[in-house]
Amino acid sequence: MNRLRPLLILAVIVGASFLSMNFSEHHSGSNAQPMQVLYAHVVPAKLVFSDHGPAAQDHEHAAGIFGIPEAIAPTNLQIFQLAAVLLILIAFGGVSNHLRNGGGDKLTRILAGWVTYIRDEMVRPNMQRGDEQRFLPYFLFVFFFIVFMNLMGLVPGGATATASIWVTAALALTTLLAMLGCGMASQGPIKFWTSLVPHVPAWLWPLMFLVEVLGLFVKPFALMIRLFANMTGGHLVVLSFMGLIFYFAGDQYSSLGWAVSPPAVGLAVFIMIIEGFVALLQAYIFTQLTIMFVGSAVHPEH
């Protein structure tokens, strides 16, 4: 299994990129301008399956997978979301045994180190003893789910699911539900809502209650916007540099396009390297803030 696991991970990444490149709507058709095709990669693209091949130009015959109508057909982002889940299942196959008994290959030890860091440095400082073990699996899933989606967006042919506002909204919604559900389960429904407001004069309590309730929704909303804006912004910078080549080449493929290519590609590669760091940083920030929000909801006095 130790030797098979890296091959399975590679197969998932390559398979997801292959499906996205060959069946995404923005890869079909030859009449679109190069820059239009380029910038289409920052938005979700429907998966196109038709009688004329995977990259058919005639979208009128396109249909979803297994007869699903085109109107509700899945997009390329779902491919990479499912791939992220598969990567978690494959990559973490032996981590639990390693944490209990030791051993395992290099990948297992690296991932176990990340798990230990998240548990000791992120979860424990914000959770009381006992609760950390109950909530740890969820926080681990959130972190690595976001990391894998972010990193797969840097693979050739890949798409960054977290660059979609709908994906980050769903992630933020889970944070909101965890805050409300876990908070009310831990404190009780009535105490959870009454404990939102600290000790203030009675005449000020209604206003403070309204502010605190609004704050419950503002926190996950900020998570949604932060992750979406950072991942989208990085891709737009990379695509802007690459777009310079097509802009200066023009319809006649001017020699200016060749002249601009080296610096444009060099700057794009530089931003891609930074994007690798940002992919980890944004997953860390989203998970850390989620831990703090849920921890404060479960233990308001902590």
Outline the structure in words.
There is one protein chain. Helices cover 69% and strands 0% of the residues. The chain is an all-alpha fold and 302 residues long. The protein has three domains: 1-88, no CATH class; 92-126, no CATH class; 139-302, no CATH class. Helix 7 (165-187) packs antiparallel against helix 9 (205-249), helix 7 (165-187) runs parallel beside helix 10 (255-298) and helix 9 (205-249) packs antiparallel against helix 10. The longest helix has 45 residues, at 205-249. Residues 51-66 have low confidence and may be disordered.
Number of helices: 10
Termini gap: 43 Å
Quaternary status of these chains?
single chain
Shape: globular
Q: Helix- and strand-based class?
A: mainly alpha
| Average pLDDT taken over every residue | 82
Q: Strand portion, in percent?
A: under 5%
Instruction: Please give the number of β-strands.
Output: 0
Rg calculated over all Cα atoms? 23 Å
Order of helices and strands: HHHHHHHHHH
Q: Which ranges are low-confidence, i.e. pLDDT below 50, for 5 or more consecutive residues?
A: 51-66
List the domain count as a whole number.
3
- Helix fraction, binned, reads 55-70%
Major beta sheet, specifics?
none
